[in-house]
Design a protein that fits this description.
Blueprint: H1 2-52, H2 58-65, H3 74-82
Length: about 100
């Protein structure tokens, strides 16, 4: 009879653990759904921001504004990479 009581207690313990696990599973599913919704909202926001970016390139906007970038000189770039680039200052012409 003592063995029957132990088995019965073990069954009750396992049933209560099962109920707790089912409750935890429900809570986790709710959290997962909330996280998925947040991820979707962030992805939508990123698309909206990307779509708001101007369609005109920076180069084209500079050209429209009359700002031209200096031509790329491989020697200057090489000097800059090596760290021995020196700017040659030209005298300022008075108006």
């Amino acid at each position: 009879m003592n063995s029957y009581a132990q088995v019965s207690q073990e069954i009750q313990k396992l049933r209560s653990e099962k109920v707790e696990l089912e409750q935890d599973e429900t809570v986790l599913k709710v959290l997962i759904d909330k996280i998925k919704n947040q991820i979707n909202a962030v992805q939508i926001e990123q698309l909206e921001i990307k779509n708001r970016e101007p369609a005109l390139s920076d180069e084209y906007l500079k050209e429209l504004a009359g700002i031209t970038s200096p031509p790329h000189n491989p020697d200057i770039l090489d000097q800059m990479v090596r760290g021995n680039f020196a700017i040659q200052e030209e005298p300022i012409q008075p108006f």
